[in-house]
Amino acid sequence: MDAYKKAGVDIAAGNQVVTDLKKLSGNQALGSFGGLFPLDLAGYKRPVLVSGADGVGTKLLVAQKAQEHATIGIDLVAMCVNDIVAQGAQPLFFLDYLGVGHLQRAQTQAILKGIVAGCQDAQVQLVGGETAEMPDMYQAGHYDLAGFAVGIAEAQQLMQPEKMALGDILLGLPAQGLHSNGFSLVRQILFKQHHFELSAQLPHCKMDLAHELLRPTKIYVKALLPLVQQNLVSGIAHITGGGLLENVARILPTDLDAVIDCSTWTLPGIMQDLASLGQLSFTDLANTFNLGIGMVLAVHPKNLGQVKQALAERQQPVLQIGQVTTGQQKVILQEQK
């Protein structure tokens, strides 16, 4: 055994990760010093590159506790590409970072399969990344993930607050569970206050906690990109940390409010159970979770029918949840009854 391996870093295992990833992704250029992406600017007048970086937060701890790593890579891709498309851009390529104390091939393969699946769903190319084996940095079986994405847009198609107008209709695209935010509170309630096992099933959930909590973040690129390219939406908010209150406010101009009627959809069962177990107020829920809405679209009334039809053609459910009114860049949530 060589000295570096004795110290805890297995170069051969790292090389095997690259080999495995080449097979999974079909990209034989992986492993180069830099990720390559041929950029075709034909048809663009004023192209703008849009970049984003994100992680999965402490949802990782749930995956590690459950020893289920197959979907956490989808979360990683989703958190990045959903931000890119919300800006009005087409995601092009993705890079990942995996930091781990000790490389375990089965665990690493499961994570990478999820990343590849997410990239395929988002129609982006995985062009590179970094796998760092760092002994003593992480507890046994633990790891950290970060993702990086780059997209492109015609300058005039970028989502800007000035595109929104008084009377715009607000549409909500349903979330797929908790997505990847609020897990520090989730873990506090379920595992520290109440000591649930991951095999437990809560009253309003159809799955045990392991499967409910690890439902992957939905990727909305295929549903939204055609709307962006046809200039059918005036604003898009990706509902992540801070919920509807913080994220919808980010797309508003200073003289408009967003009024959202939360009675137009049903609060997901997991959030109902968390509210009961953790004695959370509606404000607590709204400040932490997506409340069941993963994306909010602002649409001029004249485009409403075309937008709903386009979403239906892509099997994307949609809810009419509110309207843009005069105001001061605030989000007003009318509580569920």
UniProtKB/TrEMBL annotation:
Kindly give the NCBIfam families that the UniProt entry links to this protein.
purM
Give the GO cellular component terms, alphabetically.
cytosol
- PurM-like C-terminal domain residues are 167-330
* Protein name in UniProt: Phosphoribosylformylglycinamidine cyclo-ligase
Q: Which SUPFAM superfamilies match?
A: PurM C-terminal domain-like (SSF56042), PurM N-terminal domain-like (SSF55326)
Q: Which InterPro entries match?
A: PurM-like_C_dom, PurM-like_C_sf, PurM-like_N, PurM-like_N_sf, PurM_cligase
State the similarity comment.
Belongs to the AIR synthase family.
